[in-house]
Design goal:
The complex is a heterodimer of chains A (about 325) and B (about 325).
Chain A (H helix, E strand, L loop, with lengths): L21 H10 L1 H25 L38 H37 L1 H16 L2 H11 L4 E3 L11 E3 L4 H12 L1 H15 L2 H8 L4 H37 L11 H8 L8 H28 L6
Antiparallel strand pairs in A: 1-2
Chain B lengths: L3 E12 L9 E13 L4 E5 L6 H8 L7 E6 L2 E2 L5 H7 L3 E4 L13 H11 L6 H14 L16 H13 L5 E5 L7 H18 L2 E6 L2 H7 L2 E6 L2 E7 H6 L4 H8 L40 H5 L5 E4 L2 E3 L4 H7 L1
Parallel strand pairs in B: 3-8, 3-9, 6-7, 7-8
Antiparallel strand pairs in B: 1-2, 1-4, 4-5, 9-10, 10-12, 11-12
Helix pairs in contact in B: 3-4, 3-5, 5-6
Classes of the chains: A mainly alpha (about 325), B alpha/beta (about 325).
């Protein structure tokens, strides 16, 4: 029997290397039509949002907050579309197009910041629950399920209700550390935090599932056998391998956070007026829908296009990053 | 003193019937196993799928938590230490896995995979020393220095197995658990990897626990061979002795199943009736009795003792002497 396996000691040349790799993934990303369209729309929206103040300064756009002296007609009604006001004016005589473009600044900023907040919480909880398992996993997952069972918008409304201008002292009363006084008020920061805090549970299940399968792979066991600490195992071996999933989820989640931001704005508990928000514009324009439908339709279309773009990007990323999709 | 002395090791997995109920039954993956390995020695471990050989190997490395028993490594009980002390000890014991595709982190370059071991135990004082050591290790397993900058997917199965071996060698272990290191490879590549392991043993005096289900490979590389059935070791002897004069009826059946190249060879193929019993409910008495051609009443009630039938030849069978004469 021993004679049957006599062969030259080491001859790596005879073992061929299959070609595959990182470049393939890169090109799959760039060639994916969904990624191209989604990322393209997002890029245009972002550039417009960044350029908005400059466009106002050079006179392409109007001032979004202050009323134009000429913005209402003699009867005090919004003006229809014209060369001066491309999409007409709203009930306070402000240029609708300018407000939609400035609204992108609010929506994209809050949407992205809320997505980052939700991703940070979701990935952390998912990693810890999946990696450590046992009772910790059980507890964290039941807490996640509890959050999932509450509609996100209701939870967000409840949180927004807390933002009534009260001041919370994060320090003992006898210390006068005013920098630790947190004022609960509605604004960009509180809105993105609220949305972030209600959007994370959706990510946890998927991330945890991935961690559970990666944790048992041999390379993790090998690193453990080498003496790697838990922190090293999680940060060097598990996190990099769930990252593609995290990216896909983050893109899709941004569509959700932007919708929630619009929803809160529509209900009047988003970023307070006079800041231009798409949701708020729809709410304000509703009474004038028959006379000036563009006040509602323009921000509505903006929401649809933005959400669609992030969904397309997410789906495209999923296709491009999942090896099963390209054999 | 033996390098490794495993005493009465048990690994039981609870069979859970829901998250809130206490497990009443246990899967006895490893049951009362004792074995020892001398410095520089190779102990082969054979047995069919599911007999517990992989679990035994991983329990020795504490990748699986043992239920009871002692794992004395250089006189120190590894089953009693935890945390940083265990991580420091892990330098001395390493593992090579069966599946060369899941044993390397797909998102790390080969140099980093091998270098991680050096980082964890601070074996390289500076960057240059680290690079030099990685080059040495790659050369030791028959790979080129340039391979350090590539990703695992750029290599073939045999090359990946060599990378896994280099990673294990990086910490200069005294014992390597080889968990079916060649089962997933082509026959020609198998021989290269087995011969590489044999050469490394000669150069560095490393001891192996060589787990496999292929008796031919095990006989080729091992000094002694242990046979496992249903979580227990049923026979242990020198490699040549075990193959030529097996004493346990199970070993005899196993050896009769090894294919022989000579078509005219007269061989008596022992076909065992039935299937392997469930390790949750192992049969009373000798666990092999329901399938044993020689079983008598005593085997059904009384568990056979682990005894030295001849010098250096151990077996757990009431009828070892009779079985040996029959073969």
């Amino acid at each position: 029997m021993a004679e049957t396996i006599a062969a030259p000691v080491s001859n790596p040349v005879s073992e061929r290397s299959p070609p595959a790799g990182r470049k393939q993934v890169d090109s799959a990303l760039l060639n994916n039509r969904l990624v191209q369209v989604g990322a393209g729309i997002i890029l245009i929206l972002t550039l417009l949002a960044i350029a908005a103040p400059t466009l106002t300064r050079i006179g392409v756009l109007h001032e979004p907050i202050h009323q134009d002296t000429n913005g209402l007609d003699a009867d005090g009604m919004p003006r229809p579309p014209s060369a001066h006001y491309l999409l007409g004016t709203d009930n306070l005589g402000r240029d609708v197009l300018s407000r939609v473009v400035y609204g992108a600044r609010v929506s994209l900023t809050i949407g992205t910041a809320a997505m980052l907040t939700a991703t940070l919480i979701g990935v952390t909880v998912g990693l810890v629950a999946g990696f450590y398992g046992g009772k910790l996993d059980l507890g964290l997952m039941r807490f996640t399920d509890m959050n999932l069972s509450l509609p996100a918008i209701l939870l967000a409304i409840a949180f927004a209700g807390l933002m009534d201008g009260k001041v919370v002292h994060l320090h003992p009363a006898w210390l006068h550390w005013s920098f630790l006084d947190i004022r609960l008020q509605r604004g960009m920061v509180s809105v993105f935090l609220i949305i972030g805090f209600v959007c994370w549970p959706g990510m946890v299940r998927v991330i945890r599932g991935q961690v559970l399968s990666i944790r048992e792979r041999d390379f993790v066991q090998a690193a453990r056998a080498l003496g790697a600490s838990d922190a090293r195992l999680i940060s060097r071996h598990i996190l990099p391998n769930v990252l593609p999933t995290v990216i896909v989820l983050a893109a899709m989640n941004t569509a959700n956070t932007i919708m929630l931001e619009a929803g809160l704005g529509y209900l009047g508990i988003g970023v307070p007026p006079p800041a231009p928000t798409w949701g708020g514009m729809i709410a304000d324009g509703q009474p004038y829908f028959i006379a000036a439908p563009l006040i509602v339709i323009a921000p509505g279309l903006a929401i649809v296009i933005t959400v669609l773009a992030f969904n397309l990007l997410g789906q495209g990323l999923q296709e491009a990053l999942d090896p099963k999709h390209h054999p | 003193m033996s390098l490794l002395d495993v005493q009465n090791l048990k690994v039981y997995f609870p069979v859970s019937r829901g998250p809130l109920r206490r497990a009443r039954e246990h899967l006895k993956a490893v049951d009362e196993v004792s074995l020892s390995i001398e410095p520089g020695e190779t102990l082969g471990l054979v047995g069919e799928s599911g007999c517990g050989k992989t679990t035994l190997g991983r329990a020795i490395l504490r990748l699986v938590q043992p239920t009871a028993g002692r794992i004395l490594f250089e006189g120190e009980d590894l089953s009693r230490i935890n945390g940083a002390a265990l991580r420091a000890r892990r330098r001395k014991l390493q593992i090579i896995f069966q599946d060369p595709y899941s044993s390397l982190n797909p998102r790390m370059r080969v140099g980093h995979i091998i270098g991680e071991a050096l980082d964890i135990h601070r074996l390289a004082p500076d960057r240059a020393a680290r690079q030099k050591r990685i080059r040495e290790l790659l050369a030791a397993v028959g790979l080129e220095a340039a391979h350090a900058d590539r990703y695992p997917h750029e290599f073939s199965g045999g090359q990946r197995q060599r990378i896994g071996i280099a990673r294990a060698l990086a910490v200069e272990p005294k014992l390597i658990v080889c968990d079916e290191p060649v089962s997933a490879l082509d026959v020609s590549v198998q021989a290269q990897v087995v011969n590489l392991l044999r050469d490394l043993r000669q150069q560095r005096g490393i001891a192996y626990l060589f787990i496999a289900h292929d008796l031919a490979v095990v006989e080729h590389i091992s000094h002694r061979v242990a046979v496992m059935y249903l979580g227990r070791i049923v026979e242990l002897a020198g490699a040549k002795t075990l193959v030529r004069e097996p004493m346990h009826p199970y070993t005899q059946a196993l050896i009769s199943a090894v294919p022989v190249i000579d078509p005219d060879a007269k061989r008596r193929r022992i076909v065992l009736p039935g299937d392997v019993p469930s390790p949750v409910h192992p049969p009373p008495g000798c666990p092999f009795h329901p399938r044993c051609p020689l079983a008598e009443d005593r085997c059904r009630t009384e568990a056979p003792a682990w005894r030295q039938v001849r010098p250096g030849h151990w077996a757990a069978c009431h009828l070892a002497e009779i079985a040996n004469r029959k073969s």
